[in-house]
Amino acid sequence: MSLNRLAGKIALITGVGGGMGATAAALFAAEGARVIGCDLDNAAAAATEKAVRDAGGDIHVMGGVDLGDAAQAKEWVDAAVAVHDGIDVLYNNASAQRFGALDELTVEQWDFTMRNELSLVYYTVRAAWPHLKRHGGGSIVNVGSIAAIRGVEFMPQNAHSTAKGGVVALTLQLVVEGGPHGIRANVISPGLIETPNTAPMLADPPDRMKRVVLDRIPLGRHGRAEDVVNAAIFLASDESSWITGAHLVVDGGGSVLG
Fold first, then answer.
1. ∠ CA 207-211-214, rounded to 5°
2. pLDDT at 67 exceeding the cut of 80
3. Residue 196 in 3-state DSSP?
4. Does the pLDDT of residue 1 top 60, yes or no?
5. pTM, whole model, 2 decimals?
6. Where are the domains of the chain?
7. Which residue has the higher pLDDT, 200 or 26?
8. How crowded is residue 185: how many other Cβ atoms within 10 Å of its Cβ?
9. In Å, what is the CA distance from 65 to each residue of 28, 76, 142?
10. Residue 148 is inside which H or E element, if any?
11. Biggest alpha carbon–alpha carbon distance for the chain
12. Which of 31, 36, 100, 146 is deepest in the core (most CB within 10 A)?
C-alpha cells in the first residue's frame, strides 16, 4: 500500500523500459512521485508509460535516448527537468554490459561496458548538477553491484565489476562536492536479482551458480526488482534526509559469506 512517501517529488529515472527500471517507474509513481523516465528502446519506453498511467501514476517517458552519448544525456535531462520545472531525485538505473574472461573480452566490449555502465552515469549526473543546485539540492541514487566489492565466481565480469566500482567511487565524490548545495548521493549494490534477462537462468540455474551463489544467500532466495526499488524509494525520500555517502548492499546477505 502506498504511503505517498514521494508525494510531489520530481524524479528522473533512467532505463525504465524493463526490469528494475520499469518497477522503479511504477513504484515511484505509486508513492506520489512525478516520474520522468527514459529508455533507449522506444517501444519499451511507451509500454512503461502506458502501464504507469493506467495505474493512475504521473509519468512522462522519452524513448530513443542513448545516455552513453553526453549530448543526448544532457538533452534528456534538460527536457525532463523542463516538464515540471524542477528536479528532486535522479535515479541512475540504466546500464548495459558485456561479459567475458579477461583474455577473451575484446577491447570493444570493454569500452562498451565502460560507456554504458559508468560514463552514462557521469554524463547524466553532470547534466543534472546545475539543475539540482538551482533547485536547492536533491537526492541522487546510483545503482552499483555487489560485483564492485567482490569477485564473482559463476561469471567472468571484469569489465562490469570495474564499471560498477567506478560508480561507487564516483558517488563518494558526489557526496563531497554536492553537500554544500544540499545534494545527497547514495549507491545501491544489488546481488542476484530476477529480471526478464535473468529469469530463464534462475528458472534452471547452472549447478555452479546454484552452489556458489543461490545456496549461499542467508535469506534463502534471490532478489526481486522491488527489493532494490524499495531501497531507492527510501533514499529518494525525506526519510533519508541526513543520509549521504551510503553504500547499501541489497543481496539477501550473500556478500557477507565472501
1. 105
2. yes
3. coil
4. no
5. 0.95
6. 10-257
7. 26
8. 26
9. 21, 7, 18
10. none
11. 52
12. 36
Helix (H) or strand (E) holding 66: none
Residue 240 sits at φ, ψ, to 5 deg, of: -110, 30
CA separation, residue 159 to residues 60, 111, 143, 238 (Å)? 32, 9, 16, 35
3-state secondary structure of 82: helix
Cβ(116)–Cβ(68) under 8 Å? yes
For residue 91, the SS3 value is strand
* pLDDT, mean over the chain: 93
Q: Cα 232 to chain center, whole Å?
A: 9
CATH number, domain 10-257: 3.40.50.720
21 band by pLDDT with thresholds 50, 70 and 90:
very high
How does DSSP classify residue 160?
A: H
Q: What are phi and psi of 39, to 5 degrees?
A: -160, 155
- β partners of residue 193: 223
Residue 254, all three cell numbers: 550473500
Question: At which residue does the C-alpha cell 520522468 appear?
Answer: 36
Bridge partners of 139, per DSSP, are 89, 184
